[in-house]
Write a structure and sequence with these properties.
- The complex is a heterotrimer.
- Chain A is an alpha+beta fold.
- Chain A has a single domain, classed as Alpha-Beta Plaits.
- In chain A, a hairpin with a 2-residue loop joins strand 1 and strand 2.
- The two termini of chain A are about 20 Å apart.
- Chain B has 2 domains: about 110 residues, ATPase, nucleotide binding domain (Nucleotidyltransferase, domain 5, 2-Layer Sandwich), CATH 3.30.420; about 140 residues, Nucleotidyltransferase, domain 5, CATH 3.30.420.
- In chain B, a hairpin with a 4-residue loop joins strand 6 and strand 7.
- By secondary structure, chain B is of the alpha/beta class.
- Chain B starts with a strand and ends with a helix.
- In chain B, helix 4 crosses helix 6 and helix 6 crosses helix 7.
- The longest helix of chain B is centred in the last third of the chain and has 21 residues.
- By secondary structure, chain C is of the alpha/beta class.
- Chain C folds into 2 domains: about 120 residues, ATPase, nucleotide binding domain (Nucleotidyltransferase, domain 5, 2-Layer Sandwich), CATH 3.30.420.40; about 140 residues, ATPase, nucleotide binding domain (Nucleotidyltransferase, domain 5, 2-Layer Sandwich), CATH 3.30.420.40.
- In chain C, helix 2 packs across helix 8 and helix 6 packs across helix 7.
- Chain C is elongated, with a radius of gyration of 19 Å.
- The model of chain C has no long low-confidence stretch (mean pLDDT about 95).
- The chains are: A alpha+beta, B alpha/beta, C alpha/beta.
- Chains in contact: A-B, A-C, B-C.
- The interface between A and C is medium-sized, with 20 and 28 residues.
- Strand 1 of chain A pairs parallel with strand 9 of chain C.
């Protein structure tokens, strides 16, 4: 499943996409993110999945544009720690 | 030599006459639903105040979201460029300019010459601009001008979850029903918008000194919240809403001098 | 009391062919939304009854009320129901539910039942959110997004316009077609800015209907953009309150060039229905049947 967390408002489109089929619940993203955007737990959208999965925590879903701002400076942007930490390549960003 | 800078903002059109780099007259007119007419009115008013005729003006530069509506202007400048210019002249030590208007928020990084190095904009979403406070003031039945002072009376901020002005409106109503003190809700409103503005500013990297301009800088409650969030003192011009028009007028003066 | 323009009429339905006493598995789903709540009862996986009522200020109470309404005049009582799943925005506030499941999972499952296994793309516009879901032929979610941060493209956006124009929400769709030609859509996405844009249009002398048309097409465009993020694949279904607004539905269909499937039942029950289907599967799991 491609789980899109985030939103689109007048100012733009801000989604973190987690491919739950690739995610192995390793929790690397949880420690890699400097502001604690990720958590690993029960798959809320697939009641029959037994294995834990990464998701964007509830607190950040409605303000992800701001939560992710520290890793996304206007100039001199480096690669994102969450994406770097993810071995199975399950995380992507829409912006 | 006289020049005019005119800023066609979402809420007000501001016009300003500069005579040899000194402000000679200012006017402000509600943009309303016919901004072309509002721009003309702002120009007429400012000329009348300065006892000048249109022919006495060497150059007119327009800025603001509705700059095209100032059909009488010879040139235009972006809001980012105008603010950078104005703040560089008002406060030469400033390297970061935060501009919060009715419908847009901007953070601009400038060098010692006032040249724009980097900028970030929030537009087209009311949550990151002055309209947010205005909408909340209406929901709280507090006059917009009184929001600032009320906010400073608060000792604690109540949590606000909604990130959208429409949803925040209902959240504010339920906070009132839950018997939270109005001043605490007002502070929460200012903290919320300050948080969004601060986070946008961090995207360009905050370099001292920091200036705050735009109409929302009049709101002392918002200023307080932003200072706390940024842990920075803020340079605020006496009439922050004219900053953009002033920058446009400086740009006009350069043009008139053949720059 | 102030006139309310913005709520959908309530509804209630009970099957005339099924007797719950013959049922082996009685399952229920309760969807507590921000504006309205629904309850669905299934007997051995067949639709038996449902109700759709307003959500009050107290979620557990609303959940109970809508559940009671679904059981009204059937002789069925809470203790006869083997498993209840809570879903929706207030899903953790359904005291009698054994488990809470997200509305994403429930809507996909419910739509799969309501519209059949050919449904791949589901748009659900709720009172305070907008969901775009892609699912497989079993109703399992394969791609989704949920926008509950911004009011644009949610029922709430429509409510703001219903209020502004003093038009009851059930008339908005029809009225939005009473124009000579389709106007340019309202340009602002943000509901606050769209509202002031609309005030400006009214001052310019635009008729209510024309403003409604301009907003309905802006809204349609907005949700199509969200759908395109998850990719649209046939068949396509629209659930939730907005499915009842033909002004938005027809404009979405025109922009996507795909017709949405027609539902036999109240489109707002999809979430609760999905909940009841999960409840059935969970009983079977408990009983070691799957």
């Amino acid at each position: 499943m491609l789980a899109h967390y985030g939103y689109k408002d007048g100012s733009g489109e801000y989604f973190i996409i987690i491919d739950t089929d690739k995610c192995d619940g390793c929790e690397e993203c949880v420690t890699a993110c400097p502001v604690g955007v990720f958590e690993v737990g029960e798959d809320e959208n697939d009641p029959f999945r037994e294995e834990p999965v990464a998701k964007v925590s509830e607190d950040h879903r409605k303000k992800i544009k701001y939560s992710c701002a520290p890793c996304k400076p206007v100039s001199g942007r480096k690669s994102l720690p969450c994406m770097n930490s993810c071995d199975p390549d399950a995380i992507s960003h829409s912006w | 030599m006289n020049v005019v800078g005119i800023d066609c903002g979402a809420k007000y059109v501001k016009a300003l006459v500069l005579e040899d780099d000194k402000i000679k007259a200012k006017s402000s007119v509600l943009s309303g639903f016919d901004q072309k007419a509002a721009a003309q009115e702002a120009l007429d008013k400012v000329l009348e105040q300065a006892s000048l005729k249109k022919e006495d003006i060497a150059y007119i530069t327009a800025t603001g979201a509705g700059k095209e509506e100032a059909v009488f202007a010879q040139g235009t400048i972006t809001e980012v460029g105008a603010n950078a210019k104005a703040v560089n002249i008002l406060f030469p030590s400033v390297r970061t300019v935060i501009d919060v208007g009715a419908e847009e928020g901007r953070s601009i990084k400038i060098n010692e010459k006032g040249k724009v190095v980097d900028f970030a904009i929030n537009e087209k979403c009311a949550a990151g601009a002055g309209t947010f406070t205005e909408t909340m003031a209406r929901a709280l039945e507090v006059k917009l001008e009184e929001m600032g002072a009320l906010s400073l009376k608060s000792q604690k901020s109540v949590p606000m979850n909604a990130q959208c002005a429409v949803f925040a409106e209902s959240e504010v109503v339920s906070l009132i029903h839950a018997k939270h003190a109005k001043q605490d809700i007002v502070r929460a409103v200012h903290d919320a918008i300050a948080d969004r503005i601060a986070s946008m500013t961090r995207k360009i990297g905050i370099e001292k000194d920091v200036a705050l301009v735009g109409g929302v800088a009049r709101n002392i409650g918002f200023v307080d919240s932003l200072k706390r969030d940024l842990k920075q003192e803020l340079f605020i011009p006496e009439e922050p809403e004219y900053s953009c028009a002033l920058g446009a007028a400086f740009a006009a003066a350069e043009k008139a001098k053949g720059g | 009391m102030e006139k309310e323009y913005w709520r959908w009429p309530e509804s209630k339905w009970t099957s005339s062919d099924i007797d719950w006493k013959d049922g082996d598995i009685i399952s229920a789903g309760v969807d507590v939304g921000s504006v309205s709540s629904q309850a669905v009862v299934l007997i051995d996986g067949k639709l038996y009854s449902y109700s759709n009522f307003r959500t009050g200020s107290d979620s557990p109470e609303s959940a109970q009320k809508v559940m009671d309404k679904a059981m009204e005049e059937t002789g069925l009582s809470q203790d006869k129901i083997h498993y209840t799943v809570g879903t929706g925005y207030g899903r953790v506030n359904v005291p009698f539910a054994k488990r809470a499941i997200t509305e994403i999972a429930c809507h996909a499952r419910g739509a799969n039942f309501m519209y059949g296994p050919t449904v791949k793309t589901i748009l659900d516009m709720g009172g305070q959110d907008c969901k775009a879901i892609h699912c497989d032929e079993k109703g399992k979610v394969t791609n989704f997004l949920m926008n509950d941060k911004c009011a644009a493209g949610t029922g709430r956006g429509m409510e703001v316009f219903a209020d502004l124009l003093s038009v009851p929400i059930e008339d908005m769709g029809r009225l939005s077609f009473e124009v000579d030609e389709e106007p340019e859509p309202v340009s602002s996405t943000c509901v606050i800015f769209a509202k002031s844009e609309a005030v400006g249009l009214l001052r310019k002398g635009w008729a209510k209907e024309k403003v409604l048309a301009a907003y309905s097409s802006a809204m349609a465009h907005r949700v199509v953009e969200l759908l395109e993020r998850i990719k649209v694949e046939k068949d396509f279904a629209i659930t939730g309150g907005i499915a009842k607004n033909e002004g938005v539905v027809k404009r979405i269909e025109a922009e996507l060039k795909i017709k949405a499937l027609e539902a036999k039942h109240d489109t707002q029950i999809a979430g609760a229905l999905g909940g009841a289907l999960f409840a059935k599967a969970l009983i079977e799991k408990e009983r070691g049947l799957r």
